[in-house]
Write a structure and sequence with these properties.
Elements (H helix, E strand, L loop, with lengths): L24 H13 L10 H13 L4 E5 L2 H11 L7 E5 L4 H9 L3 E5 L10 H7 L4 E4 L11 H11 L2 E5 L7 E2 L2 E2 L6 E5 L12 E5 L2 H11 L23 H32 L5 E3 L13 E6 L8 H10 L37 H10 E5 L7 H15 L2 H7 L23
Parallel strand pairs: 2-3, 2-4, 4-5, 5-8
Antiparallel strand pairs: 1-9, 6-7, 8-9, 10-11, 11-12
Helix pairs in contact: 1-8, 2-8, 3-4, 3-7, 8-11
């Protein structure tokens, strides 16, 4: 049997995957137009490109209003504040997500309460969320994770029964639809990120969408230093900050929005083919289909390591797939309450109470034993790319015994924690 590349064998794949991000000539033209206009910033607010982009993005997702702003984390902070979430209020968040989902709650003055995830979607589990509700709970903050949606019908019903706000974290779900409704338009507000790895990117940036004018007006005030909103129908005044997006970013995002449907269809097609291939490989399991996801958004392709007993650790399997020439991560996320990037103290956040973390076994299993993550750009090519990925996974799965025997010598090979990673690795895939 062919020796693993991690153990000195030949790599399955040596050619690069599709580059990311992608751009075209119209992007050059828009950026040059902004450059020559000398109107580069976020003020006057909303500036030309930011205003047009917010409107188009919201419409694309089935919402009435969109406020473009500095980044996705700030979008969550502003959405929470616009919805009236304040000091000491509790907000239920999934334990398995990017730390920024929870830190945004703290920065808004509220307390994140962690609930477990569904084992087939890795998104917020409605039953666990229900068990986490207390008299102080004010909002649910589900995250549409990687390639699956949170179970929004049950979560919206749960929120209605307890008079809770629903704010969707859609940082992975650009262009996706759940039961025919666009990501971010199902709850009260939806928040998106345009960080470099996302399905749409301007390097950084974000947007919050809603169909409620009172929320939209308050978002504008919070983002634009406390100034009145454009329509100002509700006459709301708050202390704000400068969370505005630049015209360069907004102009770039116009092109990203235009190519989103085509790239999304390509990812979904290749993901379906990859899922069929992985289903034939012992020791791994694709996430089950989600019929309610009427349009998939695939930020990362996630599948599960299910080898049985006495097999190598998941982190070592991820490293072995990576060594075959397919970018793969195991510890992509950790349960936030165990992450080195989440260390709130009562001095910094007086609303935080030690021991308010709970225990979420499904999240911990996903984070440390089970989940394998492939970045979305590996799905932007053709069927040969999909075949290479499947061959790499099959090669590793067929050599688990050899990998297990070599584990003592590979003790230093592991997935890094979030705090160990100084930034995005510049790897030429």
């Amino acid at each position: 049997m062919t020796q693993l590349a991690l153990l000195g064998g030949e790599k399955t794949r040596s050619r690069p995957f599709s580059p990311w991000p992608q751009y075209g000539e119209t992007d050059r033209e828009r950026l040059l137009e902004v450059l020559e206009s000398r109107n580069w910033g976020g003020y006057p607010f909303p500036n030309r490109w930011a205003d047009e982009f917010g409107e188009r993005f919201a419409a694309h997702h089935g919402a009435r209003y969109g406020c473009a702003l500095a980044n996705g984390t700030i979008a969550i902070v502003a959405a929470l504040k616009a919805a009236g979430i304040g000091f000491g209020d509790e907000v239920i968040v999934p334990a398995y997500t990017w730390e920024g989902t929870a830190t945004a709650v703290l920065d808004a003055g509220a307390v994140p309460v962690f609930a477990d995830i569904d084992p087939d979607t890795y998104c917020l589990d409605a039953g666990s969320a229900s068990n986490a509700i207390t008299p102080r709970t004010r909002a649910l903050l589900p995250v549409h994770l990687a390639m699956r949606f949170a179970e929004m019908d049950r979560l919206v019903e749960l929120a209605a029964g307890h008079d809770l706000i629903v704010i969707e974290d859609c940082a992975h779900a650009h262009g996706g639809e759940y039961q025919g409704r666009g990501a971010g338009s199902i709850g009260d507000l939806g928040c998106f990120s345009f960080q470099s790895s996302k399905l749409m990117t301007a390097g950084e940036g974000g947007v919050a969408i809603t169909s409620r004018l009172e929320y939209f007006e308050l978002l504008q005030t919070l983002v634009n230093c406390g100034r009145a909103s454009v329509s100002d129908r509700f006459k709301q005044r708050r202390v704000g900050s400068n969370y505005r997006i630049t015209e360069f970013q907004a102009a770039l995002l116009m092109g990203q929005l235009e190519r989103l449907p085509g790239l999304g269809e390509r990812r979904a097609r290749n993901a379906a083919a990859l899922g069929r291939a992985l289903a034939e490989i012992p020791g791994v399991r694709p996430l089950p289909p989600q019929p309610a996801a009427t349009r998939e958004a695939i930020y990362c392709y996630v599948f599960q390591y299910r080898p049985g007993e006495h097999r190598p650790a998941r982190d070592l399997v991820a490293a072995a797939i990576e060594a075959e020439g397919v970018p793969c991560d195991g510890r992509f996320y950790e349960p936030v309450y165990r992450s080195d990037l989440f260390r709130p103290t009562p001095e910094e956040y007086p609303q935080w109470k030690a021991g308010h973390t709970g225990h979420c076994p499904v999240a911990e299993r996903a984070a440390y034993q089970e989940a394998l993550w492939l970045p979305q750009f590996v799905l932007l090519g053709d069927e040969r790319d999909v075949e290479d990925i499947a061959r790499a996974v099959e090669k590793v799965a067929s050599n688990l015994e050899a990998l297990a025997k070599a584990s003592p010598a590979l003790a230093g090979v592991k997935s890094m924690s979030r705090a160990e990673r100084p930034g995005i690795e510049k790897r030429n895939y």
